[in-house]
Amino acid sequence: MSxxxxxxxxxxxxxxxxxxxxxxxxxxxxxxxxxxxPKVYLPIEKTGAEICPYCGSKFIxxxxxxxxxx
Length: 70
Description:
The chain is mainly beta. Helices cover 6% and strands 30% of the residues.
């Protein structure tokens, strides 16, 4: 999700997040905001998955610690 492509806000219902994308907010920085709901920060670091209370989008924190990487 780190690429800077302007996408319409909250159009997908599932997003994969990496540690470089933290802190997590919905809508994310990559989304076009003119038609979005108010920005809300989601504490995904604690849970590994969060659902936005405004739009229902699900965010999943993917583990960046792959064997052999680093």
